[in-house]
């Protein structure tokens, strides 16, 4: 490309979109890349501050911003994504499913450390809906060297660093513990909360067993659900450190592999996660019964894409794991538990 004075631009081809901004009223494209400048266009261009223009002139080894955006999209975009038209050199990545956004954060950082290249995304593990914009990319200048694009390709190493993983609709068993509920001294209010939350993801609750504070009975209830084909077990009640709260011990004694008892998420410090083979068992603290958003809302979507979480995965939620208990909850469109 080369720069010329706008007054001399008639007949030349624009090599980039021209944007007009009217504060508080309008921001958009008035001339598109590839437009052949006409005599009547020149006063319009001058009125929006374009005394000089870049017009197309092919240079070996240099790539136009639109073609560069397509290149970056092709090397970074993975599963369940579609893309916007190129506008002002930028392409948006849009989810085609309801699912969990997966970003290779380390590779994304490396990519953005290359001069003249940018890629912006929503947070890793963000809950997305079909049609939601999850990322965007472009290059900073109007043209970029092929060498820098090749560097970006090497950095990613063939890995598609932006993916949306669709949720799986799982069969859920609920094990509710507590003498006060078992003996009908109080009405169970935990089961309906869990059923409501999992049903939003299309999951089926295959049953709820209410148990007294008896380790053997709780343990057998968990095993019974696994035998019935449950793919996720939610245990409610008995998750604190009181002497009668034996749910964590019962979960451990099923033979499940304990990942963590305790999480750096508030609300949700007394959360437990274990795996009985491939079946996750979640010990859900009482806060999930009355707080709108808790550790359960954070971890549940990851269980529904078969993430096999580790202690480190849970520990990483500490940075950002404090819910602000906003009067109007906007989760997941907030800072809570974003990693």
TrEMBL record:
What cellular component GO annotations does this protein have? cytosol
Give the pathway annotation: Cofactor biosynthesis; molybdopterin biosynthesis
Reply yes or no: does the keyword Manganese apply: no
Kindly list the GO molecular function terms attached to this UniProt entry: metal ion binding; molybdopterin molybdotransferase activity
Cofactor or coenzyme needed: Mg(2+)
Signal sequence segment = none
Residues annotated as domain MoaB/Mog = 173-305
Catalytic function, reaction form? adenylyl-molybdopterin + molybdate = Mo-molybdopterin + AMP + H(+)
User: What EC number(s) does the entry state?
Assistant: 2.10.1.1
What are the protein's UniProt keywords?
Magnesium, Metal-binding, Molybdenum, Molybdenum cofactor biosynthesis, Transferase
Top-level taxon of origin:
Bacteria
Q: Give me any GO biological process, just one.
A: Mo-molybdopterin cofactor biosynthetic process
| Gene3D superfamilies registered for this protein in UniProt | MoaB/Mog-like domain (3.40.980.10)
Q: Cite the CDD domains for this sequence.
A: MoeA_like
Judged by the first EC level, this protein's enzyme class is transferase
Q: Which InterPro entries match?
A: MoaB/Mog-like_dom_sf, MoaB/Mog_dom, MoeA-like
Q: Which family does it belong to?
A: Belongs to the MoeA family.
Role according to the record = Catalyzes the insertion of molybdate into adenylated molybdopterin with the concomitant release of AMP.
Identify this protein by name. Answer: Molybdopterin molybdenumtransferase
- Species lineage, top-down? Bacteria, Bacillati, Bacillota, Clostridia, Peptostreptococcales
């Amino acid at each position: 490309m080369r720069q010329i004075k706008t007054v001399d631009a008639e007949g030349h081809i624009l090599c980039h979109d021209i944007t007009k901004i009217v504060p508080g009223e309008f921001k958009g494209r008035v001339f598109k890349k590839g437009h052949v400048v006409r005599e009547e266009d020149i006063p319009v261009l001058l009125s929006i501050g374009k005394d000089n223009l870049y017009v197309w002139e092919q240079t070996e080894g240099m790539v136009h911003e639109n073609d560069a955006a397509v290149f970056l999209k092709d090397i970074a975009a993975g599963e369940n994504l579609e893309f916007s038209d190129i506008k002002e050199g930028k392409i948006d990545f849009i989810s085609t499913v309801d699912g969990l956004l997966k970003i290779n954060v380390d590779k994304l950082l490396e990519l953005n450390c290359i001069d003249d290249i940018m890629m912006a995304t929503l947070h890793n593990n963000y809950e997305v809906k079909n049609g939601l914009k999850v990322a965007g990319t472009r290059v900073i200048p109007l043209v970029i060297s092929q060498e820098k694009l090749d560097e970006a390709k090497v950095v990613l190493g063939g890995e598609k660093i932006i993916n949306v993983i669709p949720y799986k609709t799982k069969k859920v068993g609920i094990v509710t513990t507590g003498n006060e509920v078992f003996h009908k001294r109080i009405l169970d209010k935990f089961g309906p909360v869990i059923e409501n939350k999992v049903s939003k993801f299309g999951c089926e609750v295959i049953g709820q067993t209410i148990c007294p504070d008896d380790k053997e009975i709780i343990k057998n209830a968990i095993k019974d659900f696994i035998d019935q084909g449950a793919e996720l077990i939610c245990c409610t009640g008995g998750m604190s450190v009181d002497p009668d709260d034996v749910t964590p011990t019962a979960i451990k004694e099923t033979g499940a592999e304990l990942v963590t008892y305790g999480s750096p998420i508030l609300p949700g410090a007394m959360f437990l996660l274990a795996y009985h083979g491939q079946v996750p068992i979640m010990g859900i603290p009482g806060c999930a019964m009355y707080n709108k958003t808790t550790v359960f809302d954070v971890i549940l979507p990851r269980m529904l894409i078969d993430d096999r979480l580790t202690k480190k995965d849970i520990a990483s939620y500490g940075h950002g794991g404090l819910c602000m208990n906003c009067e109007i909850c906007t989760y997941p469109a907030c800072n809570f538990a974003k990693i």
